[in-house]
Write a structure and sequence with these properties.
The chain is α+β, with helices and mostly antiparallel strands. The protein has a domain at 122-390. Helix content is 31%, strand content 22%. It is built from nine helices and 20 strands. It has helices spanning 8-17, 27-44, 50-77, 82-89, 172-182, 185-188, 220-237, 299-308, 349-364, and strands at residues 126-128, 131-133, 144-152, 159-167, 199-203, 208-212, 242-247, 250-251, 253-255, 259-261, 263-265, 273-277, 282-287, 315-316, 325-331, 334-339, 369-373, 379-380, 383-384, 389-390. The strands form six sheets. A five-stranded mixed sheet has the order 1-2-13-12-14. Strands 5, 6, 7, 8 and 11 form a five-stranded mixed sheet that branches. Strands 15-16-17-20 form a four-stranded mixed sheet, with helices on one face. Strand 18 and strand 19 form a beta hairpin. The longest helix has 28 residues, at 50-77. The chain crosses the membrane at residues 50-71.
Length: 403
């Protein structure tokens, strides 16, 4: 191909020789036409739908994640009869509002609320529709003893105490084995206790629980944590001072996360009591969960914490939000818990669980009895709020099934 004869100067010169072309329309009219075309294109352009769709997808995903916790919390927060809800709406934190004119609008007045049932009519297992509660025990019969065994919840978040009564003369290890036979973890909505997979015995001189574990039978850090929490809490509830770990009869067991452990001194768990509703709708009282580093140091502080704790991970406060504790004092091993004026209580299982959580927490601080003051009713379940009540000896008592 030959070399082009066009260069920059020739191109420019040729362009200059082109005839001058001008639109006869005024500039203002041309500007208006261009602006109208731009506006028409903007109207015809389809909106970008990605962000609304993405936002809806995010909302649905978040709802799917948090709905079990919300449902779990709602079950506990809504266990009050309609009469109680009406009363609570008319009350403040310290005192209920007084009606300024009792005769005003009498024709439109609502019918009187039904009275709470007497204590004898409360079903000991009935918590609410679809929810059951196993009350604890404050006085153990002379010929009996309490055996409390811990079970993992089905989400492996923590361990739950379940208690039975056995003969007083029964060895504690035999009592554990009997509890494992009597208690149906599946029916309660719990996982099987890890104590069923080990060999248990006692070292009587040292008051120690001996746990013999198959090598490699406990897997991962979660497995280590659940196993140790189960053994430590069970040993504490049964009064042991030490735990000795063995593996096939040899001293020590190699945990995957904690390494080799040969013994453990039994210590009291964190103070405070919370609740949990299992997948089968069973409400349990559980030992305090260390949600932060600042643990309350007194019964008063702990009760306030139990009512204001941020709920999550399936755990719930045992003191309802509408219950206000004014003061806690002590005298002669008796803790006096005074409710604020205007706090409404009901003879209802929700409040039965609250009373037992206070009785259990008081026992953790060494008290022997609890006296309640400022209560708006005299009786909740089997407990007379006019009298001093012994502290809880064991929570979540399951009676053996008799045919």
């Amino acid at each position: 191909m030959g070399q082009s004869k066009w260069n920059e100067e020739k191109i420019i010169q040729t362009l200059r020789e082109f005839p001058k072309v001008e639109d006869p329309k005024p500039k203002e009219e041309l500007f208006d036409q261009i602006q109208n075309r731009m506006e028409q294109k903007q109207k015809n352009k389809k909106p970008f739908r990605f962000m609304p769709v993405f936002a809806v997808a995010c909302v649905l995903a978040i709802a799917a994640i948090i709905s079990p916790t919300i449902m779990n919390s709602t079950l506990f927060d809504s266990k009050v009869p309609e009469s109680s809800q009406t009363d609570l709406q008319n009350s403040t934190k310290l005192a209920p509002e007084k009606n300024g004119d009792a005769n005003e609008n009498t024709e439109q007045a609502a019918p009187p609320a039904e009275e709470a049932p007497p204590a004898s009519e409360i079903g000991p297992m009935a918590y609410d529709e679809g929810i059951t509660y196993h009350p604890g025990i404050i006085e153990v019969p002379e010929e009996k003893q309490v055996i409390t065994v811990y079970y993992p919840d089905q989400e492996a978040m923590g361990v739950v105490p379940v208690s039975i009564l056995t003969d007083k003369e029964m060895n504690r290890v035999t009592g554990i084995e009997e509890a494992l036979d009597i208690i149906s973890a599946e029916e309660l909505g719990l996982s099987e206790s890890v104590l069923g997979d080990v060999k248990l015995s006692e070292n009587t001189p040292d008051n120690a629980l001996v746990v013999d574990i198959e090598p490699g039978s406990i897997q991962g850090s979660t497995g280590d944590r659940i196993f140790l929490d189960t053994v430590k809490n069970t040993a504490y509830q049964l009064g042991y001072d030490h735990i000795y770990f063995k593996s096939n009869g040899q001293d020590g067991y190699e945990f995957s996360h904690y390494g080799k452990m040969s013994s453990e001194t039994v210590k009291a768990p964190e103070k405070g009591v919370f609740s949990q509703i299992s997948s089968k709708g069973t409400l349990f009282l559980i030992n305090g969960i260390p949600l932060n580093n600042a643990q309350p140091e007194s019964l008063d502080e702990t009760l306030q914490w139990m009512g204001n704790v941020v709920e999550g991970f399936g755990y719930q406060a045992t003191i309802p939000k509408n219950v206000y504790i004014k003061n806690v004092t002590d005298e002669n091993n008796t803790a006096t818990v005074e409710f604020s004026e205007g706090t409404k209580l009901e003879n209802h299982t929700r409040y039965l669980a609250m009373i037992e959580s206070i009785l259990w927490t008081a026992s953790q601080f060494g008290y022997e009895h609890v006296q309640f003051k400022g209560a708006t009713i005299d009786q909740i379940g089997p407990y007379s709020l006019k009298e001093s009540i012994p502290v809880l000896k064991a929570p979540n008592l399951v009676e053996p099934i008799t045919e």
